Automatic annotation (TrEMBL):
Belongs to the glycosyl hydrolase 13 family. Keywords: Glycosidase, Hydrolase. The lineage of its organism: Bacteria, Bacillati, Bacillota, Bacilli, Lactobacillales. The keyword GTP-binding does not apply. This is Glucan 1,6-alpha-glucosidase. It catalyses: Hydrolysis of (1->6)-alpha-D-glucosidic linkages in (1->6)-alpha-D-glucans and derived oligosaccharides. GO terms for molecular function: alpha-amylase activity; glucan 1,6-alpha-glucosidase activity. The physiological substrates may be short isomaltosaccharides. Its EC number is 3.2.1.70. It comes from the Bacteria. It holds the Pfam family Alpha-amylase. Residues 22-430 form the Glycosyl hydrolase family 13 catalytic domain. The keyword Hydrolase applies. PANTHER family: ALPHA-AMYLASE FAMILY MEMBER, NEUTRAL AND BASIC AMINO ACID TRANSPORT PROTEIN RBAT.
Length: 567
């Protein structure tokens, strides 16, 4: 890919200079001891987040919901889910965050709603009502579903309507998450009114969920079968399809543009040559999450049994391609983890001996200094890990259960299916946050938590790490300080990204600023690797700092350096 630098991407903007922390509220902190995290819990921990150095929070859905998909199935876009608190609790949290200089963005989930939303209930009650066209209903074909598309969570995208002879409704995800019909201008206006209502309340913006699924091919034609279930992946006909630009441009014009807010698009399926429309000047969003390397360990993020034995050089090349594409078109949102991914230390550090503070710091160095706004997921800053469950009954995540069943259908044993789910379950990132070494990791004083902790909270927790200068938490504070407040700030935020190929087990790159050039070297292997370095070490996850190197250095396994390049 030709290396180009977008002038628009180089323009200073406040949202490029943020450090964002993602909160999964159900698992962050429980203030009322019911085993479920809540808004008051977030408010109580804002001082911790301020001390960490983050400047903006992305809070996963807090809206009214039956919680089939933990809040991504919304039944009232203006209501607050009772287990999370009240509108007053939200206002209190927003007020305290503002007093600490912390901005807040919320999740915008408008590809689908809950089947308990008043619109959908009205659509079911009266097929002639205007709400029937707020969703996608189709007649079946020869007593079968309208087509053979498979949902992201497994099974057909079509669910038969009770009490109607041959009518089905469409759902990209779970059957209790019916898709909204973006072809209907009345529905779109309802969404825009809701978005503006929230922005008028003073939130800083939105992370926009699953937005590339809002446009479906209107022929609704079946596709060649791609699995033993006789179905075919919906993404080929309902993800980032022609015509989506009309909806996204209108959404931006009717809402985001008016408020000068920040928007972060979840944009799976967007090709690099389409980035300009998404994040370029006049693009639909300020930045997007690029998933081209997030699922390097599987063929597709929705089929965990299709595992891939990836190489460090392949990860390196994907990161470089992503960074160059983002740099050429606008701005990106960099991440290692989120609520839909397993813990990064288990995914990217494949030698268990280094799935510890060394590995966690190496990954922090790798991602945090890339060009773009860094997003830290709760627990990442203390090196939280995956869990190991022994029964599918221990999982809460609907996609984990669907992947387990699909793996069995594809011919894998129960043990193999459990292995896939343990490695990849979204529950890995949703376990209760480790505040201390007490029962339930200090997340709740209740005997029972909505999801059981990982089990290693006595070794990995905030309370212990705050006391140690060499902890993962202290390291995150240091890298945040380097990006935000050091002499290297301008280079680390706005400097040009340039990939360096030094060894197939090392991911190396440089950030080129007006006053200095900084280089990152990360050995992602269990072997020692020799690299040529000329400059001053600023940061080292093996704790050697402020040393000058002029020649060949042997990197230890999973060693990571930030170096000021010698002029």
């Amino acid at each position: 890919m030709e290396k180009v630098i977008s002038k628009f991407g180089n323009t200073p903007e406040w949202w490029k200079e943020e450090v964002v922390y993602q909160i999964y509220p159900k698992s962050f902190y429980d203030s009322n001891n019911d085993g479920i995290g809540d808004l008051k819990g977030i408010t109580e921990k804002l001082d911790y987040l301020k001390d960490l150095g983050v400047t903006m929070l992305w809070i996963c859905p807090i809206f009214s919901s039956p919680m089939v998909d933990n809040g991504y199935d919304i039944s009232d876009y203006k209501g607050i889910q009772e287990e999370f608190g009240t509108q007053e609790d939200l206002n209190e949290m927003l007020s305290k965050a503002e007093s600490l200089g912390i901005k807040v963005i919320l999740d915008l989930v408008v590809n689908h709603s809950s089947d308990q939303h008043a619109w959908f209930q009205a659509a079911l009650k009266d097929p002639q009502s205007k709400y029937r066209d707020y969703y996608i209903f189709k007649e079946g074909q020869d007593g079968m579903a309208p087509n053979n598309w498979r949902s992201i969570f497994g099974g057909s995208v079509w669910e038969k309507v009770d009490g109607e002879e041959d009518t089905y409704y469409f759902h990209t995800f779970d059957k209790r998450q019916p898709d909204l019909n973006w072809e209907n201008p009345l529905l779109r206006q309802e969404i825009y009114d809701m978005v503006n209502w929230w922005l008028d309340k003073g939130i800083a913006g939105f992370r926009v969920d699953a937005i590339t699924f809002i446009k479906k091919d209107q022929d609704y034609a079946s596709m060649p079968v791609d699995g033993l279930d006789g179905l075919s992946n919906v993404k080929h006909k309902a993800r980032n399809r022609p015509g989506i630009e009309v909806f996204l441009d209108e959404l931006n014009h009717e809402t985001f543009e008016k408020h000068k807010c920040v928007t972060v698009g979840e944009a799976p399926g967007v090709n690099y040559d389409e980035f300009d429309g998404y994040i370029g000047e006049g693009g639909y969003f300020n930045m997007i999450f690029d998933f081209h390397y997030a699922d390097i360990d599987v063929e597709t993020g929705s089929e965990w049994f299709k595992k891939v034995d990836w190489k460090v050089s392949e990860l390196r090349d994907l990161i470089f391609q992503s960074q160059y594409a983002l740099q050429a078109n606008g701005w990106g949102a960099n991440f290692l983890e989120n609520h839909d991914q397993p813990r990064s230390i288990d995914k990217y550090i494949r030698d268990e001996k280094y799935q510890n503070e060394i590995g966690a710091k190496a990954l922090a160095t790798l991602f945090f200094f890339m060009r773009g706004t860094p997003f830290i997921y709760q627990g990442q800053e203390i090196g939280m890990t995956n869990f190991k469950r022994t029964s599918i009954d221990e999982f809460n995540d609907v996609s984990s259960i669907d992947n387990y069943n699909r793996s069995i259908l594809e011919g894998f044993s129960q043990d193999e299916a459990m292995g896939f789910v343990n490695d990849r379950s979204r529950d890995n990132g949703r376990t209760p946050y480790h505040w201390d070494s007490t029962s339930n990791a200090g997340f709740t004083a209740s005997k029972d938590s909505w999801l059981s902790p990982v089990g290693n909270h006595q070794e990995i927790n905030v309370n212990d790490q705050e006391e140690k200068n060499d902890s993962t938490l202290s390291f995150y504070k240091e890298i945040i300080e380097l990006r935000q407040n050091s002499q290297y700030r301008n280079t680390l935020i706005y400097g040009e990204f340039n990939g360096l190929k030094v060894d197939d087990n090392v991911i190396a790159y440089e950030r080129i600023g007006d006053d200095n050039t900084l280089q990152v070297f990360v050995n992602l292997s269990s072997d020692k690797v020799q690299v040529e370095i000329k400059g001053q070490v600023i940061l080292d996850n093996y704790d050697s700092k402020d040393i000058n190197i002029n020649g060949v250095l042997e990197l230890e396994p999973y060693q990571a350096l930030l170096v000021r390049k010698e002029k």
